[in-house]
What we know:
Layout: H1 3-23, H2 27-36, E1 41-42, H3 43-50, H4 54-66, E2 70-75, E3 78-83, H5 86-103, H6 106-109
Antiparallel strand pairs: 1-3, 2-3
Amino acid sequence: MTMKELVIDESAGLAVAACLFHGFSDASRLAIVRHLALGPHRVVDLTEHLGLAQSTVSKHLACLRDCGLVDSRPQGRASVFTLSHPEATLELLSAAERLLGLTGDAVALCPVYGVEANS
């Protein structure tokens, strides 16, 4: 593999990794993922637990399913959602919490991606 091919391959891999993290970038999606880490849930359960509108939960679940992060199966007239890869997802969330603990308020104060930037 030439250096140019290696750079292109690495760039493609980084783009895919960025897509993965984008799947976790919305607070509502992250809340849904964290709740699904507790076990399978129906949309109605998630709306009740998280205080979000049904349409919001459904939209985010569709995004997470399209990203391969959640699976669904029919149960009666509803669908039950689960994490596609619960162990790996929990490891990622745990690593994120450790990193947030190390960076303190730096992420929240970031002028580009921080709390005030999203307001």
